[in-house]
Amino acid sequence: MQFKLGTPTVQRYNGQLNKKKAGFTPHFGALFNRQSAGFTLAELIIATLIFGFMVASLSTLYSTANKHMFQSYRADKFKSEGSMAMKTITSRLQEANRIDSPALNATGTTLAFADNVDQLSGCYPINASEPVSWHYFCRSTIVSNDCQSGSCLYYHTGTISGGGGCPGGAAWNPLANYPAYCGPGGGGNVTLLTSFVDITTLPALPLFSRQVAGSSALVGINLRVRWDPATNGTVGRDFRNTGKLIDTTLSTTVRVNRAGLPGSGF
Length: 266
Fold this sequence. Notes:
By secondary structure, the protein is an alpha+beta fold. It contains 3 helices and 9 strands.
């Protein structure tokens, strides 16, 4: 007896396969035929609108972020300049022995003083082993490439030569040493400390003031930096629509001790 294993099964399967070949259309063929027809006009319009909304949203986000970034940069810049200017003034003033401006119980936009020079007699040097120098802080209203705002704080400084010592030595002449005017070229070594110095609060908050307190002089400093995009634009650039007001004030009082001679005072 012979057995034919699997023959009926194979024939039945082949028959079903032939039927499928004869009457079955694969689903992926239908998709291919549908895609080959392309997009309709409505689909293209919808896709274009969606893309346009996305571009507009991204542009708005970029513009807003850009404005905030530059506004923060400007605010940090002006505040940093004001802080550095205040530190420069106070550090130099703490070494002073003689103050020439502002006058006693007066206010002003100029601070002039000297190191190692006697306040009363003007003799110098008080201490022969220490350098003798003058310092001059002033507000300039001259519009220039360095000071486009027309309201800038400058720092002038220089050394004082000669002198016969104290007491009894020749007196220092401040008029011959302090700058002829405020700003570049006025005299000594000149540094621009900060721009956009605002003094509209004078006399309530003067830039510089001077009073006597016991055996010391009190020098008040009120440094206000104010940048208004409506009025303080930069040459070639308009920030009226993108910038915001920046207004910061630093105030301090420095106590300056008497010169080291009996009877000298402020």
